[in-house]
Amino acid sequence: MAEHIHDCIVVGAGPAGSAAALQLARDGLDVVILERGNRPGEKNVMSGVLFTDKLRTLIPDFHERAPLQRAIIGYEGYILGEDELLRLPALRRYREDVHPPHLFTVFRSQFDAWFAQEAVDAGAELFTATLVEDLLWQNGRVAGVRTARGDLRARVVIGADGVNSTVAEKSGLRAPPSPDEVSLIVREILDLPAEQIEDRFTLRPGEGVITLFTGTVSGPTGYQGSFYTEMYTNRDSVSMTTEVPIDVLLACGVPAYDVLAARERHPHIARLIRGATLREYQAHLIPWGGVPDLGCLYGDGVLLAGDAGKFTNTYGVGSWPSMSSGTAAARAVKYACEKGDFSRDALAVYLELLDEEEMVEMQREAREEWADERRQREIVAQRPEHLFRIARRYYRDRVSEEKHPYSLWGEAYHSLVKPVAPCIFAGRWN
Ligand SMILES: Cc1cc2nc3c(=O)[nH]c(=O)nc-3n(C[C@H](O)[C@H](O)[C@H](O)COP(=O)(O)OP(=O)(O)OC[C@H]3O[C@@H](n4cnc5c(N)ncnc54)[C@H](O)[C@@H]3O)c2cc1C
Question: Residue 133: how many CB atoms within 10 A of its CB?
Fold first, then answer.
């Protein structure tokens, strides 16, 4: 009997893979999702904020059905000294002009399982506990996957298998990311009763806030780099993530757990999490800086979406870009199936579809920002006081502009705080 050939195999049931499978199934294509975890989401980590830009177009009533925690009403930001703290202007919007609200905290273990089920309900087949180990090739084209449970064939394979993508590596499309292209993010979830969360963070039931801290890390080598801690309010727990670029950790010679311990000793953070009990620790890599060449996102019989294709924006947000790139990949597969051509030339349509989703521009910005940040790090190391003065002035000018509050904050945080964090304690705020 001839071996069955699926239209598409999607590797990975994260947001990119489930968005791709949902779109393919809705388009009537024969699609299989392969997920290494025992259930979707089991292996996945996110600080916790779901950006719903793409989700609301895929599933307009998601807010009534998806497992959401709290709707985010604002951001707060602090610069941490040893035992001091500088509070940056905070923004809260108590009345949302968008319904449903734009941002929600979620647990990936719950959200990914729900989202994958949406794809299954639309007609996709899902196999869990199935690790893809290699690709199958035929006439120089990817023709399926090899798993510990057997081989599976398809016209196109979508690699939606995250930052350390097996599909990217085995297809030869993209080398594994280098240390300056990934950050290590450690996350802990601390149980705290809902009333205490609402009291300490000044929230009403159902409302959530994101609190951002930046500080410096230095170790035995004398090298000083910055870390970022973000605190997210869930229904009855608080998630804290700390991010340090891998090359900074290596240069400082500091283990990640030392950064965590120093952060939790800070009096302000200690007050916010007093009495909370640790539920679990997680750690994951996040890709930075986009891809150097968009041509590495597609090949003969293969496409990369989500973190596998480094679709995170300049702020490390990947929930919505992964869904957008997954949807674009699905549409490229549909186009190839209609043409009966699964070559790299035919699948190049992916770039046009990514462009329609504004993903080409996002990749370009992510690459530029990454290069800028590397330059800024060098300047900071050479002339900390000078840069600090410029940054402070820049920030003051920006604050006076009337802009959308979230983008104002995003811009202030990422253009001021991140680049200058290493020199703040050398130069001091005054
Ligand atoms: C700690 C952290 C915090 C973050 N915080 C945020 C945030 O607050 N908001 C936001 O928008 N973004 C955030 N991001 C980014 C966001 O989580 C990712 O961009 C997004 O999850 C990417 O989705 P994905 O589907 O491409 O990959 P993933 O979510 O990584 O999913 C990949 C899937 O593939 C599976 N898989 C991997 N290899 C194989 C294999 N060989 N065979 C079978 N299955 C495989 C995995 O088990 C997983 O289910 C954060 C990232 C990290 C690491």
Answer: 12
Q: Which atom of ligand 1 lies nearest, measured to the CA of 311?
A: 19
Three-state DSSP state, 358 = coil
- Can you tell me which atom of ligand 1 is nearest the CA of 163? 30
Ligand 1 first shell, C-beta below 6 A = 11-17, 34-37, 43-49, 51, 131-132, 160-162, 166, 185, 187, 241, 284, 286, 306-308, 312, 316-319, 322
226, β-bridge pairs:
216
The number of angstroms, rounded, from the C-alpha of 309 to the middle of its chain's C-alpha atoms is 12
Q: Are 159 and 166 in contact (CB under 8 A)?
A: yes
Of all protein residues, the one whose alpha carbon is nearest to atom 50 of ligand 1 is 46
Which ligand 1 atom sits closest to the C-alpha of 308? 26
Nearest CA to ligand 1 atom 19: 318
Domain 5-65+106-174+291-365 has CATH 3.40.50.2000: no
Distance 110 CA to ligand 1 centre (A): 14
Query: Which atom of ligand 1 is nearest the CA belonging to 286?
Result: 53
What spatial distance separates the first Cα and last Cα of the chain, rounded to whole Å?
78
pLDDT along the chain (430 residues), means of 10: 87 98 98 97 80 95 95 84 71 72 92 98 98 97 96 98 96 88 84 96 93 76 73 94 75 75 78 91 84 95 97 88 98 98 98 97 90 67 51 50 44 52 37
Long-range contacts of 87-94 (CB under 8 A, 24+ apart): 88/412, 88/413, 88/417, 89/399, 89/409, 89/412, 91/405, 91/406, 91/408, 91/409, 92/209, 93/405
ipTM of the complex: 0.99
How many angstroms does the Cα of residue 107 sit away from the middle of ligand 1? 12
Helix, strand, coil percent values for the chain (each to nearest 5): 40, 30, 30
Position in ligand 1 atom list of the atom nearest CA 131: 42
Phi, psi of 416 (to 5 degrees): -100, -60
304: CA distance to ligand 1 center in Å?
13
Nearest by Cα to 174 from 262, 374, 182: 182
| Fold observed for domain 71-103+180-286 | D-Amino Acid Oxidase; Chain A, domain 2 (3.30.9)
| Domain assignments of the chain as residue spans, ordered by start | 5-65+106-174+291-365, 71-103+180-286
